[in-house]
Write a structure and sequence with these properties.
Number of helices: 15
Strand order of the largest sheet: 1-8-5-4-2-3
Largest sheet: 6 strands, parallel
Bound molecules: 5,6-dihydroxy-NADP, zinc ion
CATH architecture of the largest domain: Up-down Bundle
CATH class of the largest domain: Mainly Alpha
Helix content: 40-55%
Number of strands: 8
Number of domains: 2
CATH superfamily of the largest domain: Dehydroquinate synthase-like - alpha domain
Amino acid sequence: MENFTVYNPTKLHFGRGVTDEIGQTAKQYGQKVLLISGKGSVVKYGYYNKIHQQLTAAGLEVFEFSGVEPNPSHQTADRAVSVGLEHKIDVIVALGGGSVIDTAKVVSAAIPIGVKTWDVMKQNVQIKSALPLIAVLTLAATGTEMNAFAVLQNQATGEKIGWRSPFTFPAHSFLDPEFTFTVPKTYTAYGIADLIAHALENYFGFGESPLTDRITADILIEAMHYAPLVLSEPENYDYRANIMWLSTVALNGTTLHGRRYGDWAVHGIGHTLSLLYDTPHGASLSIAYPAWLRLHVNRAKNRIERLSELVFGISSAEHFINALSSFFESIQCPVHLNQIGIGTDKKDEILQLMNKNKVSGMVHKLSDSDRNEVLNLMFRYAV
Ligand code: NZQ
Ligand code: ZN
C-alpha cells in the first residue's frame, strides 16, 4: 500500500429537501452571490426558481450567469469572471451538472486575482485562495461536487485539461436526488458510464490497495444493478439517490486510498473526442474504455482478472471486457465510434490530436502505435 493523505473539506448535504438550508448557508460567506447555471434545464424544471428564492429570502443579493455549455470552454468561464468582478461578489452558487460546477471552480479561483481562466488551468498563475463555492448538483456523474478538480477546454489550442487546487473543493454541496429526476435517459446513462470510468481509472493506477479494490468492485456492482432500474423509473427516489451517491464516492478520494495516483489514459482519449465532436463526456468513455481494456488485456491481465472475479465471480479478463461492453450497450451507451456517427474517415484527425497531446496514462504509458491501436479498437469494422 502507498502512503496517502485523506483530505476532503466539502460539507455534503444529501437528501430530500436539503436545499431549503442553502440561503442560511450562503449567508455565512457574504451578501453578494453569483448564481452560475447551464443552458436552461434548471430554469425549465424549476430548480432555478427554488434556489433563487431561498437565496433572496435569506436577504442575499443575487447576480446571474447562465449559459455554461456541456464540455465548457474557458471563454465561457472568463465571461462569468467578468460578471463576478463587476459586482464584487462574495460567494458563488453553482447550480447544475459537472460542466457548471467545474466552470464555477475555475471562476472562484480566477476572481480574487482577476486573471484569465485558461491561465489558471495551465498553472501560469499562482492560486493562493478562491471565493467560497456552494454546489447544487443536478446530474449524477462526475464527482465534482466533492473533489477539487475542474475540466475546461480550449478549442484554439486543442486541449481539454483537468486542474485542481486545494482551494477548489466546494465549501458545501447540496445533493437532492429529486433534482436529478429530469435528467434525460441519455445523460443518466452517460453519468453511470462516467462514474464507472472514475472507479476504473483509479483501479488501474499506481499501488496495491486490496480494500480499495473491493470498494471499486462494489461501486461497479451497485452501478450495474441500479442502472436499468433508474432508466426504467427515472422518478424513483431511491434509484436516483443510489446513483447519485455512487457517482460522488467514485471520485471523492475513496477509490484512490492506498494508491499514489490513477491512470487516466481513457479520460485523455475521451477528451479528444469531446474536443473534436463535442461528444458527451460519459459517451466518450463508454467507447474508449472497452478499447483501452482490449489493448491491455495481456499487459494488465492480472488486474483485469482480479476485478472480473470481484465483480462477476469469474476470473477472466476477456469476460470482464465483454461484460462491461455489453453493460454499456444495454443502457444505450455507445461502445464504438460508428454508433455516434464518427466513421473511419475521421481516424487520422483523431489520431493526430491524440498524438499532439501525447495522450497517455500515468501508469500504462501509450506509445504512438498504442494510440493507433486503441483507436482501431474504438471503431466497429464490418466483418
Ligand atoms: O445545460 P443545461 O441546460 O443545464 O443541461 C444539461 C446538459 O445539457 C443537462 N442537465 C443537467 N442537469 C439536468 C439536466 N437536464 C435535465 N435535468 C437536470 N437535472 O445535462 C447535460 C449535461 O450536463 P453536464 O454538466 O455537461 O454533464 P456532466 O455532469 O456529465 O459534466 C460533464 C463535464 O464534467 C467534466 C467533463 O469533462 C465534462 O466537461 N468532468 C469533471 C470531473 C471533475 N470535476 O471531477 C471529472 C470527470 O471525469 C469529468 O471529466
Ligand atoms: Zn469522467
